[in-house]
Design brief:
Blueprint (H helix, E strand, L loop, with lengths): L3 E2 L11 E6 L6 E7 L14 E3 L4 E3 L3 E5 L9 E3 L4 E6 L11
Antiparallel strand pairs: 1-8, 2-3, 2-8, 3-6, 4-5, 6-7
């Protein structure tokens, strides 16, 4: 797999977790998801979200969110302040082996 520049392309599916490369000197490769602006209700509230008058709803701010919990728990993520420069799809999980 090759790194893809965010200037060339973003992930095809919003909310899909991918591996990203950031400008951070500390943790520069992170599993994250890109959340576009106002695509659908995403469970944001007035503490963490942006309000859209037109849709009368709260939305998470557009940007990259790092995953800090199991992939199935989208609520334990945080907004990445670091600039994301590249991304790549996550590899497929290992195949299960039976122990018979």
């Amino acid at each position: 797999m090759e790194w893809i520049s965010v200037e060339d392309q973003l992930p095809e599916r919003p909310y899909k977790f991918v591996l990203v490369k950031t400008t951070s000197n500390y943790a520069n490769q992170i599993v994250a998801q890109y959340i576009p602006k106002f695509t659908e209700t995403d469970g944001a509230d007035d503490e963490f979200g942006d309000y859209c008058d037109e849709k009368d709803d709260w939305f998470l701010p557009e940007g990259w969110y790092a995953n800090v919990a199991p992939v199935t728990d989208e609520y334990l993520s945080y907004f990445l302040d670091e600039k994301v420069t590249h991304w790549m799809p996550l590899p497929a999980p290992p195949k299960e082996h039976s122990h018979e």
